[in-house]
Please model this.
Amino acid sequence: MGLILGLSIAALVFSSAIPAFCHAITTIEVNQALGRQLNGALNFVAGKDTAIRVYLDSAVQINSDQTSLAVQRDGQAIVTLAPPIYTAPTNTVEFRCPSRTACGSWAAGSYVFTATVNGVTVSTQGTTYNFVPRIGLRILVRPVKANYNGTVTSVKGDAWKTAWTFTRSVYPIAAD
Model:
């Protein structure tokens, strides 16, 4: 019984001694505000702000010196992004461009993303991430009037006139 208890304690000590940087990258997600697309589609808009999320199999403390994201378009290096500062362990590392121009304005083309998190590297090589121009989007916006129990009310102020800012940030249209 003493031997079995000794092995159990040794196993517990060993499992808690696993370094915090051990992990596996499970997914690299390209995100243009819609998150994951229906049926795993990879339809992206050229010229739209884009975040790249790297998902890990467990929460770890991120070492910024060993973590980056390399972005290539049509075989040419565009930018290497640094991660934000994470003060606690996380299982998602998000990369964003400091400006649209720093990432080549997310111009039309075929992209490859190579993520390195705490020294572990995974690439999207072999998966097609095409960013394509989209046609303009025209939306007719009018103030809304509604009848609530016999009281007709409408949207107050001019906030309804700027609905295009929400639409541009959420829907698949370029920033310009």
Notes: The first strand starts at residue 25 and ends at 31. Residues 1-21 have pLDDT under 50 and may be disordered. The domain at 19-132 is CATH 2.60.40.1220 (Immunoglobulin-like).
